[in-house]
Amino acid sequence: MTGYICPSCRLLISASNETLGSEVVCPGCSSRIRIPSVEESKVFVEPVVQTTASYAHVHHDLSSGSWIDDLPTEVLAAQTRYLPWSMLVPAFAVGSVLFVSLIVLLFFTNLGPVAQIQPSGVVSLEEKEQVTETLATPTTDEVNELLIQLSQAKLPIELPQLLRSVPDIQAKLANYYKEEEVSFSRPKEVISIKEFSNKRGLYIFRADFEDGKSNGGVVSQNSNKNWVIDWESYVGYCDIEWNEFSKSQPKQPSLVRAIRVKNEYYNHGFSSNEWQSFELSYPNSEDVLIGYARRDSSVIPKLLPIGRRFGAMEVTLKVHYPEKVNDPRLVIIDEVVAGNWFTENPK
Question: Please, what are the domains in the chain?
């Protein structure tokens, strides 16, 4: 009995002398292979194993699943000498690359300090303080009392303790009131209070007043835990009084608070191809300005935010007059400080 290797699946097959020179079916891949005769074996194929063990059949019964067990021991031993190098070499190469990559990651990656993880359900001291602060929401009575104190003030020097602290507040008060007395209406009822969107610790209120008007503002707590009002947004502060702006015609950017409405007015060198025009007005004033912003500038998305492109919108701007003034209503918009009248860090 002689052993031969299937050229298709490399399975070692034992063949009896009767099958030499004839075709048989490989039990591994079912392909038909020819077992060389004794004369052909001497020229082309050298038998792998020759054994005297009794092994009478070539066509194994594959349904039994035990044909490998039926092979002679010496045949199985010979088969183990043929390693699948076509698979081992690529596997070794891939493994080597992965190992080298792991070494590089370990030595050249800056992992940084390990973050300290709080156990589930445990709140740090800082988080407790933040939770406590978020619970400090003003009541309607507290805002009403603040507005009453504001209405009782008669001089600018009486205001700072009631106002949110901002840079140059004393100079702005002097510029706004000049030598006039302070005058605020007495509140009738605080209608609503809600947290300022994306501005923690700030609250927007709306109130009716005894003079029949309605107004809103922003309040927050100072370092003494007293509620104070943002004066600039409450009175609509401008660097130059709105009714005097067209007379002063500043050539440098000046801060104004206005109500903007998109319009299409183009004149005196302002073309629709280069500029977008806006109507700028102020409460209780008949003076109206036409502001122009370049269409390719960064101010356009802020002046025309998604969802608020049309209709009126309170804005805080920096504007200036062109060098050659042909119409005192026409100004150039340099910057959008805020999409409302509240500026978190006013300058």
Answer: 2-79 (no CATH), 140-235 (3.10.450), 242-338 (2.40.50)
